[in-house]
Amino acid sequence: MRAYSYVRMSTRKQLRGDSLRRQLERSKAFADEHSLLLGDSLQDLGVSAWKGRNFKTGALGRFLAMVESGQIPKGSYLLIESLDRLSREAVPDALTLFMAIINAGIVIVTLGEDRQIYSRSGLNGDWTKLIIGLAVMSRGHEESRTKSERIRAVAKRKREQAREGKGHITSITPTWIDAERIDVSRYAFTLNHHAETVRAIYEMAARGLGATAIARKLNADGVPAFKSKDGWYQSIIKALLLRADVIGTFQPHRVVDGRRVPDGDPIAGYFPAAIDKDLFLRVQAMRSNPGRPGRKGNTFANLFTGLCHCTHCGGPMTMKISRAKGNENGRYLVCANYVRGHRCKDGKRHFRYEPLETAVLDHVKELNLAESLAARHRGFGNEETDDRIAALKLDLDAIMRKEQRLLAALEDGDSPVTSIVDLLKERQRQRQEIERQLRHAIQEKASHHAWRAGPVLEADHVGRLRNAWEQTADENTRYLLRAEAHAAIRELVSTIDFDAEDETITLAVANGVSTYRLGRDCGQPNRTLKIGCAPV
Known about the structure:
The chain is α/β, with parallel strands linked by helices. It has 17 helices and 18 strands. The N and C termini lie far apart (94 Å). The C terminus is likely disordered.
Protein backbone atom coordinates (compact mmCIF):
# COMPACT_ATOMS: atom_id res chain seq x y z
CA MET A 1 0.00 0.00 0.00
CA ARG A 2 1.09 3.56 -0.66
CA ALA A 3 1.20 6.41 1.82
CA TYR A 4 1.34 10.15 1.18
CA SER A 5 2.63 12.69 3.64
CA TYR A 6 0.72 15.99 3.77
CA VAL A 7 2.50 19.00 5.28
CA ARG A 8 0.85 22.41 5.65
CA MET A 9 2.13 25.63 7.19
CA SER A 10 0.26 28.92 7.27
CA THR A 11 3.38 31.04 6.71
CA ARG A 12 6.75 30.39 5.15
CA LYS A 13 8.37 31.81 8.28
CA GLN A 14 7.59 28.48 9.95
CA LEU A 15 10.12 26.86 7.62
CA ARG A 16 12.84 28.47 9.71
CA GLY A 17 11.84 26.22 12.61
CA ASP A 18 11.78 22.47 12.97
CA SER A 19 8.17 21.82 11.93
CA LEU A 20 8.82 20.62 8.37
CA ARG A 21 11.56 18.17 9.38
CA ARG A 22 9.48 16.87 12.29
CA GLN A 23 6.40 16.20 10.16
CA LEU A 24 8.37 14.46 7.41
CA GLU A 25 10.29 12.28 9.88
CA ARG A 26 7.07 11.19 11.61
CA SER A 27 5.57 10.23 8.25
CA LYS A 28 8.64 8.17 7.33
CA ALA A 29 8.63 6.41 10.71
CA PHE A 30 4.93 5.47 10.39
CA ALA A 31 5.41 4.20 6.81
CA ASP A 32 8.37 2.05 7.87
CA GLU A 33 6.50 0.72 10.89
CA HIS A 34 3.49 -0.39 8.78
CA SER A 35 5.43 -1.46 5.67
CA LEU A 36 3.94 1.29 3.52
CA LEU A 37 5.56 2.68 0.38
CA LEU A 38 5.92 6.41 1.10
CA GLY A 39 5.17 8.46 -2.01
CA ASP A 40 5.88 12.09 -2.77
CA SER A 41 5.23 14.58 -0.01
CA LEU A 42 2.24 16.90 -0.49
CA GLN A 43 3.13 20.36 0.73
CA ASP A 44 1.06 23.53 1.17
CA LEU A 45 3.69 25.94 2.47
CA GLY A 46 2.48 29.43 3.27
CA VAL A 47 -1.13 28.34 2.64
CA SER A 48 -3.78 28.97 5.26
CA ALA A 49 -6.54 26.45 6.05
CA TRP A 50 -8.61 29.15 7.83
CA LYS A 51 -10.74 29.74 4.72
CA GLY A 52 -10.03 26.39 3.03
CA ARG A 53 -7.45 27.66 0.54
CA ASN A 54 -5.38 24.48 0.86
CA PHE A 55 -8.35 22.47 -0.42
CA LYS A 56 -9.68 25.00 -2.95
CA THR A 57 -6.40 25.86 -4.65
CA GLY A 58 -3.67 23.92 -2.87
CA ALA A 59 -2.01 20.50 -2.87
CA LEU A 60 -4.74 18.92 -0.71
CA GLY A 61 -7.38 19.68 -3.33
CA ARG A 62 -5.18 18.24 -6.08
CA PHE A 63 -4.67 15.10 -3.98
CA LEU A 64 -8.41 14.50 -3.61
CA ALA A 65 -8.94 15.12 -7.34
CA MET A 66 -6.31 12.46 -8.12
CA VAL A 67 -8.09 10.05 -5.79
CA GLU A 68 -11.41 10.65 -7.54
CA SER A 69 -9.81 10.16 -10.98
CA GLY A 70 -8.19 6.87 -9.90
CA GLN A 71 -4.59 8.12 -10.12
CA ILE A 72 -4.26 7.40 -6.41
CA PRO A 73 -5.77 4.02 -5.49
CA LYS A 74 -8.35 3.57 -2.78
CA GLY A 75 -6.91 2.23 0.45
CA SER A 76 -3.93 4.60 0.31
CA TYR A 77 -2.89 6.44 3.46
CA LEU A 78 -2.79 10.18 4.03
CA LEU A 79 -0.33 10.99 6.84
CA ILE A 80 -0.77 14.28 8.70
CA GLU A 81 0.48 15.70 11.98
CA SER A 82 -3.00 16.68 13.17
CA LEU A 83 -6.50 17.16 11.75
CA ASP A 84 -6.05 20.93 11.97
CA ARG A 85 -3.49 20.58 9.16
CA LEU A 86 -6.38 19.55 6.89
CA SER A 87 -8.72 22.38 7.84
CA ARG A 88 -9.21 25.18 10.32
CA GLU A 89 -12.65 26.10 9.06
CA ALA A 90 -15.77 25.84 11.22
CA VAL A 91 -16.52 22.27 12.33
CA PRO A 92 -19.31 21.58 9.78
CA ASP A 93 -17.01 22.60 6.89
CA ALA A 94 -13.99 20.77 8.33
CA LEU A 95 -16.08 17.64 8.89
CA THR A 96 -17.37 17.76 5.30
CA LEU A 97 -13.80 17.78 3.95
CA PHE A 98 -12.75 15.05 6.39
CA MET A 99 -15.63 12.78 5.35
CA ALA A 100 -15.03 13.47 1.64
CA ILE A 101 -11.51 12.07 2.00
CA ILE A 102 -12.71 9.11 4.08
CA ASN A 103 -15.56 8.29 1.69
CA ALA A 104 -13.13 8.42 -1.24
CA GLY A 105 -11.45 5.34 0.28
CA ILE A 106 -8.43 7.07 1.84
CA VAL A 107 -7.18 6.22 5.34
CA ILE A 108 -6.29 9.34 7.38
CA VAL A 109 -3.55 8.95 10.00
CA THR A 110 -2.71 11.63 12.58
CA LEU A 111 0.87 11.43 13.81
CA GLY A 112 0.69 13.89 16.71
CA GLU A 113 -0.31 13.39 20.29
CA ASP A 114 -3.72 11.80 19.54
CA ARG A 115 -2.20 9.34 16.98
CA GLN A 116 -5.46 8.14 15.42
CA ILE A 117 -6.26 6.11 12.30
CA TYR A 118 -9.50 7.08 10.55
CA SER A 119 -11.07 4.94 7.83
CA ARG A 120 -14.62 4.31 6.65
CA SER A 121 -14.64 0.75 7.96
CA GLY A 122 -13.02 1.81 11.22
CA LEU A 123 -15.60 4.52 11.88
CA ASN A 124 -18.42 2.08 11.12
CA GLY A 125 -17.11 -0.18 13.85
CA ASP A 126 -16.19 2.49 16.41
CA TRP A 127 -17.67 5.94 15.75
CA THR A 128 -16.36 7.28 19.10
CA LYS A 129 -13.08 8.06 17.35
CA LEU A 130 -14.98 10.73 15.46
CA ILE A 131 -15.60 12.56 18.73
CA ILE A 132 -11.85 12.97 19.16
CA GLY A 133 -11.59 14.28 15.59
CA LEU A 134 -14.41 16.76 16.13
CA ALA A 135 -12.71 18.08 19.26
CA VAL A 136 -9.45 18.63 17.34
CA MET A 137 -11.33 20.36 14.51
CA SER A 138 -13.13 22.65 16.98
CA ARG A 139 -9.90 23.52 18.79
CA GLY A 140 -8.11 24.35 15.53
CA HIS A 141 -10.96 26.57 14.34
CA GLU A 142 -11.13 28.45 17.64
CA GLU A 143 -7.38 29.05 17.65
CA SER A 144 -7.46 30.42 14.10
CA ARG A 145 -10.52 32.56 14.79
CA THR A 146 -8.89 34.06 17.89
CA LYS A 147 -5.70 34.75 15.97
CA SER A 148 -7.65 36.28 13.09
CA GLU A 149 -9.59 38.56 15.44
CA ARG A 150 -6.40 39.74 17.12
CA ILE A 151 -4.71 40.48 13.80
CA ARG A 152 -7.84 42.26 12.55
CA ALA A 153 -8.03 44.36 15.73
CA VAL A 154 -4.37 45.36 15.47
CA ALA A 155 -4.79 46.29 11.80
CA LYS A 156 -7.95 48.28 12.57
CA ARG A 157 -6.16 50.19 15.32
CA LYS A 158 -3.28 50.97 12.97
CA ARG A 159 -5.71 52.37 10.41
CA GLU A 160 -7.43 54.49 13.07
CA GLN A 161 -4.09 55.89 14.26
CA ALA A 162 -3.08 56.63 10.66
CA ARG A 163 -6.31 58.59 10.10
CA GLU A 164 -5.63 60.53 13.29
CA GLY A 165 -2.08 61.29 12.16
CA LYS A 166 -0.59 59.33 15.06
CA GLY A 167 1.07 56.49 13.18
CA HIS A 168 1.49 54.55 9.96
CA ILE A 169 0.11 51.25 8.78
CA THR A 170 3.09 49.73 7.00
CA SER A 171 6.57 50.45 5.77
CA ILE A 172 5.58 49.40 2.24
CA THR A 173 5.62 52.52 0.08
CA PRO A 174 5.46 53.49 -3.60
CA THR A 175 8.78 53.19 -5.43
CA TRP A 176 9.43 56.93 -5.30
CA ILE A 177 9.19 57.06 -1.48
CA ASP A 178 11.66 55.69 1.09
CA ALA A 179 10.58 54.67 4.59
CA GLU A 180 12.73 54.83 7.73
CA ARG A 181 11.36 53.35 10.97
CA ILE A 182 11.03 55.82 13.86
CA ASP A 183 9.31 53.53 16.34
CA VAL A 184 6.90 50.57 16.38
CA SER A 185 4.12 52.24 14.41
CA ARG A 186 5.72 55.30 12.81
CA TYR A 187 7.97 55.85 9.79
CA ALA A 188 9.67 58.82 8.20
CA PHE A 189 8.67 59.01 4.53
CA THR A 190 10.91 60.87 2.09
CA LEU A 191 10.90 61.27 -1.68
CA ASN A 192 13.77 59.66 -3.57
CA HIS A 193 15.19 60.23 -7.08
CA HIS A 194 12.25 58.42 -8.72
CA ALA A 195 9.99 61.33 -7.71
CA GLU A 196 11.58 63.42 -10.49
CA THR A 197 10.56 60.73 -12.97
CA VAL A 198 6.98 60.80 -11.65
CA ARG A 199 6.85 64.56 -12.16
CA ALA A 200 8.29 64.27 -15.67
CA ILE A 201 5.69 61.63 -16.61
CA TYR A 202 2.80 63.76 -15.39
CA GLU A 203 4.14 66.87 -17.11
CA MET A 204 4.40 64.98 -20.40
CA ALA A 205 0.84 63.68 -19.93
CA ALA A 206 -0.35 67.24 -19.27
CA ARG A 207 1.18 68.27 -22.61
CA GLY A 208 -1.01 65.69 -24.35
CA LEU A 209 1.39 62.75 -24.70
CA GLY A 210 -0.11 59.27 -24.41
CA ALA A 211 1.29 56.37 -22.39
CA THR A 212 3.09 54.87 -25.38
CA ALA A 213 4.75 58.16 -26.31
CA ILE A 214 5.84 58.75 -22.71
CA ALA A 215 7.31 55.24 -22.42
CA ARG A 216 9.16 55.72 -25.71
CA LYS A 217 10.54 59.09 -24.58
CA LEU A 218 11.75 57.71 -21.24
CA ASN A 219 13.40 54.71 -22.91
CA ALA A 220 15.05 56.92 -25.53
CA ASP A 221 16.44 59.19 -22.79
CA GLY A 222 17.72 56.21 -20.80
CA VAL A 223 15.59 56.99 -17.73
CA PRO A 224 15.66 53.87 -15.49
CA ALA A 225 12.30 52.22 -14.84
CA PHE A 226 11.10 51.83 -11.26
CA LYS A 227 11.60 48.06 -11.10
CA SER A 228 11.77 46.53 -14.57
CA LYS A 229 15.19 45.97 -16.11
CA ASP A 230 13.58 45.96 -19.56
CA GLY A 231 12.72 49.65 -19.54
CA TRP A 232 9.34 51.33 -19.51
CA TYR A 233 6.08 49.76 -20.66
CA GLN A 234 2.86 51.46 -21.68
CA SER A 235 0.94 49.60 -18.94
CA ILE A 236 3.24 50.99 -16.22
CA ILE A 237 2.67 54.56 -17.40
CA LYS A 238 -1.11 54.08 -17.61
CA ALA A 239 -1.25 52.69 -14.07
CA LEU A 240 0.91 55.51 -12.68
CA LEU A 241 -1.30 58.17 -14.25
CA LEU A 242 -4.25 56.87 -12.21
CA ARG A 243 -2.54 56.55 -8.82
CA ALA A 244 -3.60 59.00 -6.14
CA ASP A 245 -0.52 58.27 -4.01
CA VAL A 246 1.47 60.58 -6.31
CA ILE A 247 -0.28 63.44 -4.46
CA GLY A 248 0.27 61.77 -1.08
CA THR A 249 -3.07 59.97 -0.72
CA PHE A 250 -3.08 56.47 0.74
CA GLN A 251 -5.94 53.96 0.49
CA PRO A 252 -5.95 51.41 3.36
CA HIS A 253 -7.03 47.88 2.47
CA ARG A 254 -8.15 44.76 4.29
CA VAL A 255 -8.40 41.14 3.17
CA VAL A 256 -11.86 39.69 2.55
CA ASP A 257 -12.10 36.11 1.27
CA GLY A 258 -8.47 36.21 0.22
CA ARG A 259 -8.85 39.47 -1.72
CA ARG A 260 -7.63 42.95 -0.83
CA VAL A 261 -10.51 45.42 -0.75
CA PRO A 262 -10.47 49.15 0.17
CA ASP A 263 -11.11 49.84 3.85
CA GLY A 264 -12.69 53.19 4.56
CA ASP A 265 -11.86 56.52 2.97
CA PRO A 266 -8.44 57.33 1.47
CA ILE A 267 -6.08 59.22 3.79
CA ALA A 268 -4.93 62.53 2.30
CA GLY A 269 -1.41 63.72 3.17
CA TYR A 270 -0.26 60.28 4.30
CA PHE A 271 2.79 60.35 1.97
CA PRO A 272 4.82 63.31 0.74
CA ALA A 273 3.40 64.42 -2.61
CA ALA A 274 5.52 63.85 -5.71
CA ILE A 275 3.41 66.30 -7.77
CA ASP A 276 0.94 69.05 -6.92
CA LYS A 277 -2.79 68.36 -6.94
CA ASP A 278 -3.51 70.81 -9.78
CA LEU A 279 -1.25 68.85 -12.14
CA PHE A 280 -2.84 65.58 -11.05
CA LEU A 281 -6.38 66.85 -11.65
CA ARG A 282 -5.40 68.35 -15.01
CA VAL A 283 -4.08 64.98 -16.18
CA GLN A 284 -7.21 63.18 -14.93
CA ALA A 285 -9.38 65.64 -16.85
CA MET A 286 -7.35 65.09 -20.01
CA ARG A 287 -7.35 61.30 -19.75
CA SER A 288 -11.11 61.21 -19.18
CA ASN A 289 -11.48 62.79 -22.63
CA PRO A 290 -11.88 59.87 -25.09
CA GLY A 291 -10.05 61.66 -27.90
CA ARG A 292 -6.72 61.74 -26.13
CA PRO A 293 -5.39 58.28 -25.18
CA GLY A 294 -3.74 55.87 -27.57
CA ARG A 295 -0.82 55.82 -29.91
CA LYS A 296 -1.55 57.91 -33.05
CA GLY A 297 0.80 56.17 -35.49
CA ASN A 298 4.53 56.72 -35.70
CA THR A 299 4.27 60.45 -36.49
CA PHE A 300 0.89 61.43 -34.96
CA ALA A 301 -0.63 61.59 -38.44
CA ASN A 302 -3.92 63.31 -37.49
CA LEU A 303 -3.63 66.48 -35.41
CA PHE A 304 -7.43 66.61 -35.15
CA THR A 305 -8.11 63.09 -33.88
CA GLY A 306 -11.15 62.98 -31.61
CA LEU A 307 -12.57 66.18 -33.13
CA CYS A 308 -13.68 65.05 -36.61
CA HIS A 309 -17.27 63.91 -37.15
CA CYS A 310 -19.57 63.12 -40.07
CA THR A 311 -22.41 65.64 -40.47
CA HIS A 312 -24.80 62.97 -41.77
CA CYS A 313 -24.56 60.37 -39.00
CA GLY A 314 -22.51 62.00 -36.25
CA GLY A 315 -19.95 59.20 -36.38
CA PRO A 316 -16.17 59.71 -36.19
CA MET A 317 -14.00 60.29 -39.24
CA THR A 318 -11.22 57.76 -39.81
CA MET A 319 -7.99 58.17 -41.74
CA LYS A 320 -7.33 56.15 -44.89
CA ILE A 321 -4.07 55.89 -46.85
CA SER A 322 -4.30 55.96 -50.64
CA ARG A 323 -2.04 53.58 -52.58
CA ALA A 324 -3.25 54.78 -55.99
CA LYS A 325 -0.65 55.40 -58.67
CA GLY A 326 0.52 59.00 -58.67
CA ASN A 327 -0.91 59.58 -55.20
CA GLU A 328 1.17 57.22 -53.05
CA ASN A 329 0.66 57.61 -49.32
CA GLY A 330 -2.03 60.28 -49.76
CA ARG A 331 -4.07 60.58 -46.57
CA TYR A 332 -7.86 60.99 -46.52
CA LEU A 333 -10.53 61.35 -43.85
CA VAL A 334 -13.77 59.42 -44.39
CA CYS A 335 -16.77 58.55 -42.20
CA ALA A 336 -15.94 55.42 -40.18
CA ASN A 337 -19.59 54.31 -40.19
CA TYR A 338 -19.75 54.56 -43.99
CA VAL A 339 -16.56 52.50 -44.32
CA ARG A 340 -18.01 49.67 -42.24
CA GLY A 341 -21.44 49.92 -43.91
CA HIS A 342 -23.37 50.90 -40.80
CA ARG A 343 -25.76 53.81 -40.11
CA CYS A 344 -24.36 56.09 -42.83
CA LYS A 345 -25.11 56.06 -46.55
CA ASP A 346 -24.20 59.66 -47.38
CA GLY A 347 -20.69 59.95 -45.91
CA LYS A 348 -18.90 58.50 -48.92
CA ARG A 349 -16.78 61.59 -49.73
CA HIS A 350 -13.06 61.25 -48.94
CA PHE A 351 -11.50 64.50 -47.72
CA ARG A 352 -7.78 65.04 -48.23
CA TYR A 353 -6.01 65.50 -44.92
CA GLU A 354 -2.89 67.49 -45.86
CA PRO A 355 -4.75 70.57 -47.22
CA LEU A 356 -7.02 70.50 -44.16
CA GLU A 357 -4.10 70.59 -41.73
CA THR A 358 -2.33 73.34 -43.68
CA ALA A 359 -5.46 75.49 -43.95
CA VAL A 360 -6.31 75.19 -40.24
CA LEU A 361 -2.79 75.91 -39.02
CA ASP A 362 -2.40 78.82 -41.44
CA HIS A 363 -5.71 80.58 -40.95
CA VAL A 364 -7.47 79.71 -37.69
CA LYS A 365 -6.08 82.65 -35.76
CA GLU A 366 -7.23 81.34 -32.37
CA LEU A 367 -4.59 78.60 -32.57
CA ASN A 368 -1.94 81.29 -32.11
CA LEU A 369 -2.89 81.46 -28.44
CA ALA A 370 -1.07 79.39 -25.89
CA GLU A 371 -3.40 77.10 -23.93
CA SER A 372 -3.27 79.02 -20.65
CA LEU A 373 -3.41 82.44 -22.33
CA ALA A 374 -6.34 81.33 -24.45
CA ALA A 375 -8.29 80.22 -21.38
CA ARG A 376 -7.81 83.62 -19.72
CA HIS A 377 -8.60 85.44 -22.98
CA ARG A 378 -11.94 83.61 -23.20
CA GLY A 379 -12.69 84.93 -19.73
CA PHE A 380 -14.50 81.91 -18.37
CA GLY A 381 -11.79 79.85 -16.67
CA ASN A 382 -12.21 76.67 -18.74
CA GLU A 383 -9.14 75.10 -17.08
CA GLU A 384 -10.66 75.62 -13.63
CA THR A 385 -13.89 73.98 -14.83
CA ASP A 386 -11.95 70.98 -16.14
CA ASP A 387 -10.15 70.65 -12.80
CA ARG A 388 -13.46 70.80 -10.93
CA ILE A 389 -14.98 68.14 -13.18
CA ALA A 390 -11.94 65.89 -12.64
CA ALA A 391 -12.13 66.37 -8.86
CA LEU A 392 -15.87 65.60 -8.81
CA LYS A 393 -15.29 62.44 -10.85
CA LEU A 394 -12.71 61.30 -8.29
CA ASP A 395 -15.17 62.04 -5.46
CA LEU A 396 -17.92 60.15 -7.29
CA ASP A 397 -15.66 57.14 -7.77
CA ALA A 398 -14.77 57.17 -4.05
CA ILE A 399 -18.39 57.41 -2.87
CA MET A 400 -19.45 54.59 -5.21
CA ARG A 401 -16.74 52.36 -3.72
CA LYS A 402 -18.12 53.16 -0.26
CA GLU A 403 -21.59 52.12 -1.37
CA GLN A 404 -20.21 48.84 -2.70
CA ARG A 405 -18.47 48.13 0.61
CA LEU A 406 -21.68 48.81 2.55
CA LEU A 407 -23.65 46.51 0.26
CA ALA A 408 -21.03 43.81 0.80
CA ALA A 409 -21.32 44.31 4.58
CA LEU A 410 -25.09 43.84 4.31
CA GLU A 411 -24.55 40.54 2.51
CA ASP A 412 -21.99 39.36 5.07
CA GLY A 413 -24.31 40.16 7.97
CA ASP A 414 -21.41 40.91 10.34
CA SER A 415 -22.75 44.34 11.38
CA PRO A 416 -26.16 45.61 12.55
CA VAL A 417 -28.44 45.93 9.52
CA THR A 418 -30.12 49.15 10.67
CA SER A 419 -26.88 51.10 11.05
CA ILE A 420 -25.59 49.89 7.68
CA VAL A 421 -28.85 50.83 5.91
CA ASP A 422 -28.79 54.31 7.48
CA LEU A 423 -25.19 54.82 6.41
CA LEU A 424 -25.97 53.50 2.93
CA LYS A 425 -28.79 56.03 2.56
CA GLU A 426 -26.40 58.81 3.57
CA ARG A 427 -23.81 57.65 1.04
CA GLN A 428 -26.51 57.54 -1.67
CA ARG A 429 -27.54 61.09 -0.77
CA GLN A 430 -23.91 62.20 -1.03
CA ARG A 431 -23.52 60.44 -4.38
CA GLN A 432 -26.63 62.14 -5.76
CA GLU A 433 -25.31 65.53 -4.63
CA ILE A 434 -21.93 64.91 -6.31
CA GLU A 435 -23.70 63.76 -9.48
CA ARG A 436 -25.77 66.97 -9.41
CA GLN A 437 -22.64 69.11 -9.07
CA LEU A 438 -20.94 67.13 -11.83
CA ARG A 439 -23.88 67.63 -14.21
CA HIS A 440 -23.86 71.35 -13.40
CA ALA A 441 -20.11 71.62 -14.05
CA ILE A 442 -20.41 69.78 -17.37
CA GLN A 443 -23.32 72.00 -18.43
CA GLU A 444 -21.35 75.05 -17.37
CA LYS A 445 -18.44 73.99 -19.53
CA ALA A 446 -20.74 73.36 -22.50
CA SER A 447 -22.59 76.66 -22.12
CA HIS A 448 -19.56 78.99 -22.22
CA HIS A 449 -20.21 81.32 -25.09
CA ALA A 450 -18.64 84.70 -24.42
CA TRP A 451 -15.47 85.03 -26.46
CA ARG A 452 -14.27 88.44 -25.38
CA ALA A 453 -13.10 90.70 -28.14
CA GLY A 454 -9.66 92.23 -27.80
CA PRO A 455 -6.18 92.28 -29.27
CA VAL A 456 -4.78 88.93 -30.39
CA LEU A 457 -2.29 87.62 -27.85
CA GLU A 458 1.09 86.96 -29.44
CA ALA A 459 1.86 83.53 -28.03
CA ASP A 460 1.95 81.42 -31.25
CA HIS A 461 2.16 78.20 -29.25
CA VAL A 462 1.04 75.86 -32.04
CA GLY A 463 3.05 77.83 -34.60
CA ARG A 464 6.29 77.31 -32.72
CA LEU A 465 5.58 73.60 -32.42
CA ARG A 466 4.81 73.44 -36.15
CA ASN A 467 8.12 75.08 -37.07
CA ALA A 468 9.95 72.64 -34.84
CA TRP A 469 8.41 69.46 -36.31
CA GLU A 470 8.89 70.70 -39.88
CA GLN A 471 12.60 71.17 -39.23
CA THR A 472 13.32 67.88 -37.50
CA ALA A 473 14.06 64.57 -39.17
CA ASP A 474 13.78 62.57 -35.94
CA GLU A 475 10.55 60.57 -35.98
CA ASN A 476 10.18 60.40 -32.20
CA THR A 477 10.75 64.13 -31.72
CA ARG A 478 8.24 64.87 -34.48
CA TYR A 479 5.66 62.66 -32.77
CA LEU A 480 6.12 64.41 -29.42
CA LEU A 481 5.81 67.88 -30.95
CA ARG A 482 2.67 67.00 -32.89
CA ALA A 483 1.15 65.33 -29.82
CA GLU A 484 1.65 68.54 -27.85
CA ALA A 485 0.09 70.54 -30.69
CA HIS A 486 -2.86 68.14 -30.70
CA ALA A 487 -3.43 68.85 -26.98
CA ALA A 488 -3.32 72.61 -27.59
CA ILE A 489 -5.75 72.37 -30.53
CA ARG A 490 -8.24 70.38 -28.45
CA GLU A 491 -8.24 73.17 -25.87
CA LEU A 492 -9.61 75.57 -28.51
CA VAL A 493 -11.39 73.61 -31.23
CA SER A 494 -14.73 72.07 -30.21
CA THR A 495 -15.56 70.02 -33.29
CA ILE A 496 -14.81 69.64 -37.01
CA ASP A 497 -17.85 68.52 -39.04
CA PHE A 498 -17.51 66.97 -42.52
CA ASP A 499 -20.40 67.33 -44.99
CA ALA A 500 -19.86 64.87 -47.84
CA GLU A 501 -22.83 66.19 -49.84
CA ASP A 502 -21.75 69.86 -49.86
CA GLU A 503 -18.06 68.92 -49.79
CA THR A 504 -17.50 71.36 -46.93
CA ILE A 505 -15.86 71.21 -43.55
CA THR A 506 -17.04 73.33 -40.60
CA LEU A 507 -14.65 73.98 -37.73
CA ALA A 508 -16.11 75.33 -34.48
CA VAL A 509 -13.96 77.18 -31.94
CA ALA A 510 -15.04 77.56 -28.31
CA ASN A 511 -18.28 75.58 -28.68
CA GLY A 512 -19.33 77.37 -31.84
CA VAL A 513 -18.72 80.98 -30.82
CA SER A 514 -16.28 81.31 -33.70
CA THR A 515 -16.77 79.16 -36.83
CA TYR A 516 -14.69 78.54 -39.97
CA ARG A 517 -15.91 76.89 -43.14
CA LEU A 518 -13.61 75.10 -45.55
CA GLY A 519 -14.71 74.40 -49.11
CA ARG A 520 -13.41 72.79 -52.32
CA ASP A 521 -11.28 75.05 -54.53
CA CYS A 522 -12.70 74.30 -57.99
CA GLY A 523 -9.71 75.89 -59.72
CA GLN A 524 -7.36 73.18 -58.51
CA PRO A 525 -7.46 69.71 -60.08
CA ASN A 526 -6.44 68.06 -56.83
CA ARG A 527 -9.50 69.54 -55.05
CA THR A 528 -7.43 71.35 -52.42
CA LEU A 529 -9.44 72.61 -49.48
CA LYS A 530 -9.10 76.33 -48.68
CA ILE A 531 -10.08 78.32 -45.62
CA GLY A 532 -12.57 81.17 -45.82
CA CYS A 533 -11.26 84.71 -45.46
CA ALA A 534 -13.08 85.22 -42.17
CA PRO A 535 -15.13 83.30 -39.65
CA VAL A 536 -18.79 82.85 -40.55
